[in-house]
Amino acid sequence: MIIEKLLLHVLIVIAPVLSYSFLFESRKIGKSPYFLGILYGVSASLCMYFAYFNSGLYWDLRYVPLVLSIFYGGPISGIITLTALLATRTVMGGETLYLGYISASVACIVPFILYKYFWRFPPRKRIYMSIIAGLWPAIVQLLILLSYLYINSEVLQVDQDIYLYIAVFGIIQILAVVFGSILNEAVIERNLMKDEIRRSEKQHTLGELAASIAHEVRNPLTVVKGFLQLMEGEDERHKHYYPLILSELSRAESIISDYLNFAKPEFKKIETFSIAELVTELSILLNPYALKDGISLTHLIESDVKITTDRNQLKQALINILKNAVEATPKEGRVSIKLIPEGEQVKIIVRDTGKGMTKEQLSRIGSLFFSTKQQGTGLGTMVSIRIIESMGGKVEYTSKIGKGTKVSVALPLISSFEEDSV
């Protein structure tokens, strides 16, 4: 009987994830911690309502929705679920009501503490952390149960199956946490993939548009520039205008080249080189640019590795990222570059102590015409991300208002270029 009841609880535990995923995900309410807290609160209450009563205690998986609510919905969601859990237990009453309060109060401590570190880990480690957090309430319940049985020793004589119940309860609780965590991670991964597909489609459309416009504009610009160079020495009255006109034409050509590079990065010279040497070179190159604004630019190399890619294109992409970091940093601020080899890839981490960005600004990084600079177009960042992604790499931005921004560039040791980019 206990197995049937607890397996029903497993279905109740995963119901909020399925409800969120299929019914409310595309709506604004589906992303609210209050809504998730209510969903998991209902789940915990149903677990208690359909509990298996034996030996004076309720056997249920009420704490699994609580753990999942805290980890995947946040502290607000967790508090709502805990409130629903305590309210349901109060309504149920009974002589062991005080044990329910003690159990709930102690069981929620570890999940709330671990939540601070939860999102710093990759999905697999998050599942392991969920299992650890799910074991804690089970241990708390077991200790309270044993204490209760010890105090009421007559129960031990009546029901010798209690130890079997404990074993079954522990195993099914772990399984419920695992299923719940895996489903949550699957939903998160699916959302990330959908966002990535949307972004790729948008970039592809922008790339085709940029290429067609750039090609059409570049040809007349080249003709105009050629004739201006021919006329430069003929008219002495307007001689001082020519350098300015030619300079602006060169700038226009540079912008068009950036658009073409975004549409279809060209990797002309693939070579194997030391990434540490490139990072050192970038630090030396941009140090005067940083110092003129009183900004400290430092680099740290944990160990050197060699990578195979287009050195000049990678250098240009990293220069754009570093220049953005320097320009976002106030006087007396700091910009650092860190090189970390990780297995089959290498990470280049750029940190600044600038004003930081909001979540909305972070979500728009890499979009055309979005920039935190007054005169910026966002084109440099777009090109940098496009180049690195075409090399098989990945760029991640994290930021906090008032604390600065971190840009993490992950590159494979041997770049897997897109077919249309080589």
Automatic annotation (TrEMBL):
Transmembrane: present as a keyword of the record?
Answer: yes
Membrane spanning stretches: 35-52, 64-86, 98-115, 127-150, 162-183
The reaction(s) catalysed by this protein are: ATP + protein L-histidine = ADP + protein N-phospho-L-histidine
Lineage: superkingdom: Bacteria
Q: Which UniProt keywords apply?
A: ATP-binding, Cell membrane, Kinase, Membrane, Nucleotide-binding, Phosphoprotein, Transferase, Transmembrane, Transmembrane helix, Two-component regulatory system
Location (main, coarse): membrane
Supply one GO molecular-function term.
ATP binding
Q: How does it sit in the membrane?
A: Multi-pass membrane protein
Q: Where in the cell is it found?
A: Cell membrane
Pfam families linked = 5TM-5TMR_LYT, HATPase_c, HisKA
Q: Where is the Histidine kinase domain?
A: 212-415
For this record, an example GO cellular component is: plasma membrane
Q: What Enzyme Commission number does this protein have?
A: 2.7.13.3
Residues in a coiled coil are: none
Any one GO biological process:
cell wall organization
Q: Where is the signal peptide?
A: none
Q: Which SMART domains match?
A: HATPase_c, HisKA
Q: Which PANTHER family does the entry link to?
A: C4-DICARBOXYLATE TRANSPORT SENSOR PROTEIN DCTB (PTHR43065:SF46), SENSOR HISTIDINE KINASE (PTHR43065)
The protein's name: histidine kinase
